Amino acid sequence: MLPDEHRTIDFFTEDALPVPRMAPAEAELIAAEHLGITARAQELGSQQDANFLLHADDGTPAAILKIANPAFGTVEIEAQDTAADLIASARPELRIATVLRRPDGSPRRTTVDTENGPAVARLLRHLPGGTLSGPRHLSPGAVAGMGTIAGKVSTALRDFRHPGLDRVLQWDPQHADRVVAKLAGHIGEPDRRTAVRTATAEAWAHVQKLAAMLPSQAVHLDLTDDNLVRRPDSRPPMPDGIIDFGDVTTSWAVGELAVSLSSMLHHDGIEPHHVLPAVRAFHAVRPLSPEEAEAVWPIVVLRGAVLVASGRHQAAIDEDNVYAKTALDREWRIFEQATRLPLPVMIRLIRDATGMADVPARTAQADAPVRPLLRDLVADDITLLDLSTDADSMDHGAWTDAGAEARLATSALADGAAAVATRYAHARLTRTPALSAVSTATVPTGIDLWLGRDAVVQVPAAGKVLAAAPGHVELSYGTQVLSLSFPHAVQPVVTTGATVQAGEDITHLGSGASVHVALRDADGPAVPRLVRPEYAAGWLALTADPAPLLGLAAGSDRTPERDLLDRRDAVFATVQEHYYANPPRVERGWRHHLLSTDGRSYLDIVNNVTPLGHAHPRVEQAVSRQLRRLNTNSRFHYAAVVEFTERLAGLLPDPLNTVFLVNSGSEAVDLGLRLAMGASGRHDVVALREAYHGWTYASDAISTSLQDNPNALATRPSWVHTVDSPNSYRGRHRGSDAVRYAPEAVAVIDELATAGRPAGAFIGETFYGNAGGVALPDGYLAQVYAAVRRHGGLAVADEVQVGYGRLGHWFWGFEQQQVVPDIVCVAKAMGNGHPLGAVITSKAVADRYRDQGYFFSSTGGSPVSSIVGLTVLDTLRDEDLQGNAARVGGHLKSRLEALADRYGIIGAVHGSGLYLGLELVRERVGLEPATEETAELCDRMLDLGVIVQPTGDHLNILKIKPPLCIDTTAADFFADMLDLAFNQLGHSR
User: What is the Cα–Cα distance from 476 to 947, expressed in whole angstroms?
Assistant: First the structure.
């Protein structure tokens, strides 16, 4: 029996839509007898159709056999195939699962009998790569890619018409209220059933206000993670293919985006704010109208509700449908995430994401009151308490004190303030934990007040008391609700339901009492006192700054972060790159933490510039003291430069007893080379490949890191000669064969001498930094130093990154190699963030510099720089930071090695102390660098509260160089977040 060609489905007339029961053997028979292909069938999951992957004899995928649900008529199938062909033609950059055709151009389609009636079976193009299904975290790029595809499909189908689109589907958001009403009874848990019905009613009511203004068109309506295919070998997974056109219909165009957004919400680590890149991407391709932007999230909620109700229904009526049953948990998670925030909050965020926000959230403020909220208290009596990242009160780690707010308020009151008030909408650093995998609620939606004298709280303008109870009053204030919270022991004077006039008493508060003041929209949801920064724009749009009620000026807007980045790019040479595509704005550091203006604390794993930790009080006090006295150049006579250079020289073995002071590592290396050339009388230099030494002419000339200069090896001047990177992990000689590197380097040095160009210097890092903290092979420097010296050259050690105790077991990297260089270049750690570098050599070598002229650095060795240098050395010693590097670094390395046992992507754990490298590879034999995976990992770690960056020629090594003050708790947090991120990103053994 043939299906009715012109019939289209009406879900509400169907009792059930079970998947057609079809064994793989039956599918193989259909494919061979009716569709002209002999293949082995592998069953695939589906909600309502029967799908099989057909394999050729050699095992390669040949096609998809799709047997439609018998409820779908032939005209519907024709509409699906026509839509697929249309998109494939309009958007050739997308791969589309189109119907396969016979030589005469007709579709490979037939009708087969099933236990529920005749069904259409057809062959579809197989798209390799796999879908985005599963719990794996979606990168921002993948999320945006999904939005882009949805936009492209929407534009391609805009003018598509077909009688097979006239359908009534349960997945069409236009029918969501009816679907939930019909199926919600299958949700067994009463609380979940109620939640689904309640959310559906609210979202449906919101959409209905907009429905008449929402354009309709042909839509795919199922561009979900299950139906978007990743580009083969894309890393991280990026979609470029579309399958399953079974839900093609005519519906609200914006539903295309909403359906795609909903499917993202069950993925590991994804919250509602993570889907906003998809909104922006869709809007860039197919602009949303204001009404559509407002309807997006309510439709997401409706989609989540329909998924839950439909999933429970399908599992009940189709007990053998494993696909439907395994989807139940993820469908509930989608619903939970879709409803975790009030609709107005997400609507505002989407309007912001599309540039449609009519009023910037932080400029909202209360109307001027008829009477001030606090009687007889004027603005001059109130001290503003700044708790932001920029506040001086947050210095010296004050933000870590759980009682910081009360302590600061009490101090201000003790200094004579009649009242102390916090600031609306300015993130409070006091509310962030030092270590957290998610951002915390730091942005206030109201103001807190502490009173230094008795005060009367009065009605600011005529209104109605909406609620009055001990410790709490709410009253109308124009179109807003004024909420007051005070000590529970305090009774309000007003009563619920009373009409009040401006100036009437609300309550009486004694000295020392506190009160929270907030304004929110009368028709909006309840607003928390503090909200997370990612959602702050949405919440704040529902509130207003209550400062004017106190006689205070409303707070001014902060500079939008994107505007600040644009300004940076306009004036700051873009070759000076910044970390991350969307970096947090970091304006404070403390110990091993970096603090953003959103009030989030990030664990700093990359800053070897500040070995003592950020904002060390001892350095700050020493610098401040010296700046109050003198700062000039080193040609003047003062004690600090003498004391510092004596201390520095004393840390090195004989004959390294003479110091030059400069401002950076680049300058130190440049000067070190000039010293070697001057002392040896030779200008040829031998350097290691894959190394970075600086940006000056000479230091750049010997830098061969391909990430710093992709043409590094081809653009070296003739006086630079390179030897193999002695990398025992991924170099030419690995493991025990790494002993071959030194003789090969010696041979190069000898050959130069034989050719009449003996090297004046050999320069190399003493512990291979740019390669991720790989130790040089034992005895390497001893052999190479001996060779260069044998021909009259000098050995130059670059200790810029690894020196100053970072290696834990050795203060200097060359100590690990049991050698003494002729010249040592050092910087970074010397100044704890202050620009300071040094070159230490013998007096004989230093004196030869006079043959080239005189040396002078304006600020190298200045009184301030010298004091900084001394203070850093004192603190390294007094706080035993080298010992801490050994202890904490050893603990961290063991944690990382344990992760390497669990995750195959970790190829090696390099390094010593707190100079570590985690090298990521795609497989452990050929060591293919996992470059893209490393970049994705770094982005995910940022979201988890850790700042870490890649290094190495392939950017596949996490450089782990935190401040030396890092403790075991923080090291464990880093390892735990790596564990979580690896798991969320789908890596396994």
Answer: 46
